Automatic annotation (TrEMBL):
One of its GO terms (biological process) is DNA-templated transcription initiation. InterPro entries: RNA_pol_sigma-70-like, RNA_pol_sigma-70_dom, RNA_pol_sigma70_ECF_CS, RNA_pol_sigma70_r2, RNA_pol_sigma70_r4, RNA_pol_sigma_r2, RNA_pol_sigma_r3/r4-like, WH-like_DNA-bd_sf. Keywords: DNA-binding, Sigma factor, Transcription, Transcription regulation. Residues 30-94, 131-179 form the RNA polymerase sigma-70 region domain. The keyword DNA-binding applies. GO terms for molecular function: DNA binding; sigma factor activity. It holds the Pfam family Sigma70_r2. The lineage of its organism: Bacteria, Bacillati, Actinomycetota, Actinomycetes, Geodermatophilales. It comes from the Bacteria. PROSITE patterns: SIGMA70_ECF. This is RNA polymerase sigma factor. Belongs to the sigma-70 factor family. ECF subfamily. It comes from Klenkia taihuensis.
């Protein structure tokens, strides 16, 4: 095969592969998830203006990082909620450092009950579920049984028919793989 033919094929492949920035449709993503992200931010912060700012910042960050979004790693909703979680944390820290700014914002949402724990747990569960799905079945089982269900290592090892040391090894390497999967998904520790 000559160099000219190979170059032509590579050029054809490049033309067929879509640019990730072009494939991220912010309008469609906003239409599908904007209201839900707004409700999440409103429940977390209890401030309509801050919630609107969070949603705007989520889609700005998503648009800027569109080339790093990989639908094979996480669903769009999970990716957007991971970004929203980080933005809400940033916003809460900003208010904690400068409490007078909360008084300057629109407090129309002040009567909205804030249940930050529930929404935070739901988003965390989605993210962990997506990350666990990326692990091999042996590592996933070891982590789910020992960490998430809180079962003793000896009991789980006996049930699986493996030595306790093997189970501990699976947990150790599974947690390393889980941490890597979370980093790839853009989740900050």
């Amino acid at each position: 095969m000559t160099a000219g033919r190979t170059g032509g094929r590579l050029t054809a492949l490049r033309r067929r592969a879509p640019d990730p920035v072009e494939t991220f449709d912010a309008r469609a993503a906003y239409a599908a998830h904007g209201a839900e992200l707004y409700r999440f931010a409103l429940r977390q912060l209890g401030d309509e203006g801050a919630a609107q700012d969070v949603v705007q910042e989520v889609f700005l960050r998503a648009w800027r990082a569109a080339d790093s979004y990989d639908p094979q790693l996480a669903g769009l909703r999970t990716w957007l909620f991971a970004i929203a979680r980080n933005v809400v944390v940033d916003e809460a820290r900003r208010f904690a450092v400068r409490p007078w700014q909360r008084a300057l914002t629109d407090d129309a949402g002040a009567d909205v009950p804030v249940d930050a724990g529930l929404d935070e747990r739901v988003v965390d569960a989605w993210v962990v579920e997506e990350a666990l799905a990326r692990l091999g079945p042996d590592h996933r089982t070891a982590i789910v049984q020992t960490h998430l269900r809180g079962r003793p290592h000896g009991e789980v090892a006996a049930e699986l028919g493996i030595p306790v040391g093997t189970l501990r090894s699976r947990v150790f390497y599974g947690l390393k793989a889980l941490r890597l999967a979370l980093e790839e998904m853009g989740v900050e520790p």
